[in-house]
Amino acid sequence: MSTTSGATGSQPSATGDANIFNKWSRKFSAVTGIGITEEERLRELEIHQNSVCNRWKKELMNYSPAVVFMLKRLEQAGCPVAPKHLSCQPCSYNRSGGFVPSAGIIILCQGRFWSKTHMEHTIVHELVHMYDQCIFKVDWNNLRHHACSEIRANSLSGDCRWTRELRRGFFSFTKQHQTCVRRRAVLSVAANPACPDIETAEKAVNEVWDSCFADTRPFDEVY
Fold first, then answer.
1. pTM for this entry
2. Which residues are tagged catalytic?
3. What is the pLDDT averaged over residues 149-157?
4. For residue 204, which of 2, 10, 118, 143 is within the disulfide window of CB 3.0 to 4.6 Å?
């Protein structure tokens, strides 16, 4: 009896094999479009991207030193962040994530991350915004407030590492980090509905630059 049971246990499961094949087949169809309509392909692709996004999110919230550090600091500040506060969603092509202050959530743009490291930087960036909201009660309609948080988020998150800038097509040997932080902060402030033009965004960033770029809280230094 035990010998038979052992032999049976060592055999591959037909159900398991079928599930693996079906999963692979759906992923293949979603990527290639073979055997399904365009609507079905887009739906399967969305399901796959959501699954990857949530898996990476879970891993980063548990194991990324920078993400775990930010989560602990937010909890200590009285603003704990749970997995439900990081929502994987479809987004437009020109963004990877965003913080929604009114809802207290971070949107992660599924399918817009070329690596888990890219998602890590995005999560830390948005957690810095969450931290600023929690500690400093940011008025996001105040362009100076917004500019300060963007300077800090871009500087502290890893968004402006040399390798990230090289991928974007920007290359510099001198003050690369500062140049990147300033450029990205200006673009973010310019996208604020309260900002009338790029010149106003540049002015807001310039006015708070020195104090906000030097402020690395809750990190001891630039991550």
1. 0.80
2. 126
3. 97
4. 143
Residue 42 pLDDT class (50, 70, 90 cuts):
confident
Angle at 177 between CA 75 and CA 79, to 5 degrees: 10
Residue 9: pLDDT above 50? no
For residue 34, pLDDT beyond 70: no
